[in-house]
User: Fold these one by one.
Assistant:
Number 1:
Amino acid sequence: MATTPPKNSSDRNLIGRGSYSEALRIGSILRKETVGGLLLVVAAIGAVIWANSPAADTYFAIRDFEIGYEPWHLKLSLGAWAADGLLAIFFFLVGLELKREFVAGDLSQFSKAIIPVAAAAGGVLVPALIYVAINFGNAEAMRGWAIPTATDIAFAVAVLAIIGSHLPSALRIFLLTLAVVDDLLAIAIIAVFYTDEINVLPLMLFVIPVAIYWVLAHRYRRFFGLHASAAWYILLPLGLIAWGFLHASGVHATIAGVVLGFAVPVLRSAASGGPTAGPGLAEIFEHRFRPISAGFAVPVFAFMAAGVAIGGWEGFTSALTDPVTIGIIVALVLGKPIGIVATTWVMSRFTKARLDASLKWIDIIGISLLAGIGFTVSLLVAELSFGLGAIENDHAKVGILVASVLAAVLASILLLSRNRRYRKLELEESVDADADGIPDVYQRGN
């Protein structure tokens, strides 16, 4: 006699299918990030080719060209503007997405949120330990221990979208959440370990525009009578001021993007002048700024950061023998999946959480391999670790590029076979929508 699963069984899923609305939202994000990921790859390849061409001096002259106002600590090279300024837009969206997941998404329940958070922590800790083990005793090389801790959302999502058209949405949600939490941990590492000197006055002044920003973001209708789509006219200048103060304080300015993202309301409240149960300003801002981030900010940063003079085949092989390069490659390609899968297994073994019936452990391994694509944030941490022009930084870039390609290839080989299997299952099983427009699979118990 068949037994009926308990009503709350879905809450114990290690990685669940999630709600239908969440699946639709994740699908929309994936489509947008796919384009950005492809642009990122093209920009990175273009930078590497240009940096190793007869016109290489022109590339480095553009990257190192300084512009800005010195008294405000804003006379920076174009490469630094891309790393400090444009990436703040990317991290603003990271903040929006993370808050959306934990406030109104399927991860608003602790039982569901703890899994990707724990997996992300494992995916940060194990690669860092592997890098340290390989470079132990070399003080200069040890500065790059955090390079292999991050996952590139745009790059990984682009690969997943190309190879995984029939993979369960639960895997996509898991990858996106994992990458967002992963980047948040990387940001915390940057703030704590890569801030050499803190200027207290600018840091204190940073709090003022952020506080005003938070109040106006929650009450913009009451104060100004503005529609949500026009609120950014007021909030954007405050965000720029906050970014400037944080940059002057010595803390990496991209963190301002995350802080401001967390300050934006996810749900519309009565205080803002709208109903209590509608989409908030975060959704408006996400639609407005995601194309700017994916289509411009991240690709430009990749173009400025990925250019490394390899020095031909001899220079490439020389870089591959550097413990810095070896540590990054091993940590990203092996350390990431080991950390993510091991942590996820431990959670399934010692808690009540279980793997969703629609998934297999081989799927988790494939996604964890994909998480080894550490590009955008890894390049940023490499520059913070060693500085532009340092040989260690150049070798770190080689390691990041090689590791990202290897991780993408290995994940593609595994997930393509899984994608074919799920495509076959879709053909064998009819998953029709009811009159309410929601597929039956999202209305059954997990």
Number 2:
Amino acid sequence: MENTVVQERGNKAKLYQLVLFPLNNGATNVYYVLVLSYIATFGSNVLSLGILFASVMVTGMRVFDAFTDPIIGALMDRTNGKFGKFRPFMVIGNIIMALSIITMYMITPGIPESMMAFRYAAFVGLYAIWVIGYTFQTSCTRAGQTVLTSDPSQRPLFTIFNTVGSLAGMGVMQFLAPIIRANVADYSSADFYKVLTPIGITVSIVLTILAIIGIWEKDQPKYFGIGGDKQEKVRISEYIEIIKNNDPMKRLMIAGAGCKLALSIATNTTVLCMLYGCMMGNYDGLYLPMMIIGYVFSVPFFLLTVRTSQKKGQKASLLRYVSVALVCYVGVLVLLLMWKEGVPSRNLSFLSDGSVSINLYTVLFILLFGIGYGAYYSTADMPIPMVADCSDYETYRSGKYIPGIMGTLFSLVDKLVSSLSATVVGIAVSIIGIQNLPTAETPYSSGMNAVVIILFCIVPMVAWIATLIAMKGYILSGEKMRRIQEVNLKRKEAIANGMSMEEAMRTIND
């Protein structure tokens, strides 16, 4: 046993493991686009459900999560079979999501309108099933990092490889969706979902398989906390005490919520349809170019965030680049306030009569949006590797290795704010008197500019301010994490050599 511990001192991941395991987040981000970006539009326009019902239900279903997440987290923390702790949840979760969404998008439109009550029931039931599958798989992204590597200089790399995974999942879906809309059917048509669904599910399955390969070698007891397979079983009732005393996790949940809320609302399909289609009048000519511009600007910021995280810790990196996003979006806000319907010099323009036509308004928008988007997109998933730090801190604080509950707690916040975006958008649109969620073909109507300004700029800016406030008191700096990892390793070695958990916790400290 002693040799095993010495061998894994300074547990580090191999390069292929760092590259492949983050693809698990890409696999679930496929459904971020496939479900959370379109579920309200599908329910409202395809199934003819009430606009507020379709939007509010997405958030209301998170009450259901409040009961399922701790249970799934407890199951994960107690799991230790031949297939490991995390891999079973990745496989089962992906299967559940695939089956529920196939049924939702490809079968429920066939329910006749005379059976509207059945449509409502199917919509709610299938969405609830999907939520369970999403929790199964997405919580592994957070929890699995605790076994992948304990090296503080490697964990920031997860962010950049996670971005590659997100582009392989979310990016592919965002790229294909408008192409399918233009060549097959509109977002309001059932045919759009029948084409997009099998593509998305296939991409998600491939990414899941690659992620399983990435964590395969590390998904075994010798990497589980300081007690290995001798760790005590944590009861669900103890989770309240854990969260009460784990201040870094509480602060990270607020920061994660802020970053995710900013991303989910500002990139919501309805918001972008109103901005590029209804206001600027050229959705097809603006959506893809602006998305590509955002991704191009993101590349240097991902490199900068990793460099900053490795030198000064992930907290410093998150604070710095969220601040950059906040400053840039003040400029975007000013430009949207200057927008005027029918005035070319105050609208986005790339082409006019088949030739290039870029005005000063467009140049300024590209720069401010590009830098701001690049900064906040690079930080949107930064809290994910920080969950592993909070989990290691919990092991350091209490001796308990509970990556499952830590992952599902963060996953719950992630899903709450993601689904909250659909509710916020639905309520905002209904306030200005629109009966169905706008699509690219919806004409501009009074009040849309104000809605876009609030949803595209002000809400994300408020979320970033909350992030900055929460992270100010976050104690897990880069140096602090190095000390924590060293203490955890010394305790693990002592326990492997016969010392009790209680004595190791009492006698081995900073």
Number 3:
Amino acid sequence: MKKTLFGLIYMSSYKIQLNIVDLKDLTVIEQLDSPSFLQADSKSQVFEQDMDKICDAIEGFKEKLAEYQIKDFKFYGNEQLIDEMSASFIADQIKVRTGWKIEWLNGGQIVYAKVLSGMKSQAEVNDDGKDHATYLLSLGSAMINLSLFKNNKFESSWSLALGPREIQEINEITNETPNDPIYVINDYLGAKIGHLARQIKDNSRAAVIIQHADALNNTYLKKENSANQITHEEFQYFYDQLIQMSLNDIMQNYDLEPAVAEHVIPNAISIKQFLSLLNIGTIYITDMSVVTGLLMLEKRGKDTDIMMTSAQNMARRYLVDLHHANAVRKFALHIFDRLRKVHLLPKSARELLGWAATVDDIGSFVNQARRYEQSADFIEANELIGMSDRENEIVSEICRYQTIDDGDGSAPNIGGHHYRHLNPDVQLTVAKLSAILRIATALDASHKQKIKKIVISLKKNNELVIRAKTNADITLERWSFNKRVKLFEDVFGIKVVLKQEGMNRQ
């Protein structure tokens, strides 16, 4: 078999699926699905009641991979609907019973995969050569995501919590009242979407690509295409027919299983609400999915530009001074690069440092006095697009440890109670990157970018000299540097000196 063949297993809240794919052009050679999972009423029940289905499917997948002589495969699972304890238990059960290790994807990673698939969908439908704004509306088991692309580049993303439990609660409400459930769901979604109306401008020239709308795809998507255009009139006809149907009618008419069918009406209402909110001109549908994005990730690796854009969007949302953040990031990355033989961290740590430098001041939006700790809390609660739980934890903790102890003992410190409770595999990385970022932040303490360039040299006497190239008064930067340098000296065992040199000196 060709070496480009690859196996991707993805477990959603609905089923577990194997895709045999040619990575050369991302062609799906064969696809196998498990029977649909039972839809759980609580996080503790998701996947657990379907362990036999999951393990039986995996054994079948093993046979199929062997048939194609494929040894290169990945096994991912959607973690959005389960808690950390359940994820650990389920992963252990799968490992014990099948020998396979699952890699859980958090909400930020799922959104990232959707964005990647949206970019591929956009490339397929953008055949007029024009760079109009394009939205990707992705309907998921736990979230509805809306992403914006301009000039064929990712711009922003918003998420709306809507999953099986919310749908079940709405159904229970409508069962107890004489109200039409369509109106109740409409009101619920309208309230959820309302906050986006203040952030999104309507654009009649914009297009929307609708993703994961199975009933709509089964009605209008041509078998030979992965994406195609539908008219507003076609969608309205589909909608008018759909809302009159029972669950059994939906299953039969659109060839859907119960777990998928129960989401069709809420999803259709969501689409209608978003079309109205965005004042969309052109509608496309696609069968490209999270799996498509994961395959693109496997083929090309991470698109760090998307992840940095996401971090910058978060910074803008909380009114961070981006000129300051960019200066700090530039200094931090330069220090990281010049001290590779000292910190001994992998290249991936450099990216984490850059993201932390971008978002470390978002907490000022709420609490200036304890802004870095507030920043850490924000990042813990709002996963950055594309980051694993471990990466997100490192970035949040780097932010937390930018706090300087002013003598009252209240600031978190490296080696203190909170730090000792971090996962051991992240402690050293957090300490080293926090130390680098502290002195980089000091180099723009005035937020005026007085220092345009730094030159770093490590002397034989184990002294690090940072030469600041500037003709400006950097008294404030010196004062801040002296306060923030101790962590660096403690972590690396190196004495650090800041010297100023005029811009006319080489």
Number 4:
Amino acid sequence: MFESARLPHAMTKEDFALFETKLRESLLNAQFELAEQKRAATVVLINGSDGAGKGEVVNRLYDWLDDHFVETLSYGPPTDEERARPGAWRYWRDVPPKGRIGLVLGSWHHRALRNRALGRLDRVAYGNTLEEMNRVEEMLRLEGVYLLKIWLYLDDREARRRLAGLRQADGAMRRPVVLEWEEIDTAKERARLNEAALEMIEMTSTGDAPWAVVPADDPHYRDAAVGDLLLQTLARASSTAQAIAARTLAVAAPDLALPRPSVASALDLTQKADPDAYGAELRALQRRLTAATTAKSFRDKGLVLVFEGNDAAGKGGAIRRVREALDPRRFRVHGVAAPTDEERARPYLWRFWRNIPRRGDVAIFDRSWYGRVLVERVEGFASRDDWMRAYQEINDFERQLHEAGYIVVKLWLAISQDEQLRRFEDREAKPFKRYKLTPDDWRNREKWALYEQATTDMVDRTSSRHAPWTLIEANDKKFARLKVLRAIVERLEK
């Protein structure tokens, strides 16, 4: 999950200074409005690798906020007084009152991660702990506590390199550093910590309290991103969120906008298939797909294929090459359009649940349940609360399929704007292709940046261990078709 955190993120010193000036003013306005209303409290949970700058982020927030209404809540090993009470007691004791902001180091998430990494919690107990966290965090939100959960992401090797550079020969640190994971020192424990952190983010990222994974390579970008997230949280906590949001526009002006790389921008769309080898490669992959879906072992499984992508990215052509390798009695293609009145009268996942195939069969979805976090989000058909909670609902849906023996393969076909325009014009010029082009397709081009951001959020929040996204470079249709087939057979052959 959060593949975009691994992309380069940086701000120049000059851009940061401009951004900071506007951001600080907006943060103070939002903070004083919150303090005056006393309608909600805000709790910022700052987590991540040692060396990622947790302490620096706390200090930066103190620079930007009025410290009369902010407090730091830090937790290490429990004291004798805390051991004499339930484990959650010390967190409940320190919940800030409405109107104030709490900055938390060593939260309840840290405690669970530490115990899992050290082997003190098995997988089942850890899963139960995460479910309990969700219930508690939902209750906090209903009681007027807004959580901002931040994970500062830094590659493990880079984090260890930074710490080694800060540590003197006698073990002392050259400057203050928040160290929370020193006892996690074996390769096995670090691997278990990384896996547990990923599971925690998957399981406890809810609509009301989602995780925000912030790249921490560049301190300027890291601090600007955290400040921007805090401003958004304060806006939601305020009963006059619209007024604060209006002030936020100054921060989001084009010349000051926080750069947000998209997952699509990292793709090399110039890749092409070898035209001489294409036919042989295609047939070989199709044979592997046929073998995998007709094997005896597949009878106890099911295959769910999800095709999403830019308009005119070639989903139909890719699906056709998949169909050619399947027993026609054992698959169905579901073309997903706007919901019918019957479907609108039910929860949005209903129409997809009813099309899940029996084991031994294949369902191909040309568009899917991801419409809730793509077109419905961008076009305003779903409220922010609805599409934010949909990430967890979708993850739960796909997890249920996985646990029932289904293989979920999700494919995003990406093309450039120029290539899309060329394909639109080609469709418009050919009578037998005109049916593929609608006024909505042209209109959606004007919202390219919004769809690109929605796609990045979708991949970040729903590319789980059991149902990861595969991004397909689709400017060259033959390259895309081969990569689609390869992704499917490799999942089936695992």
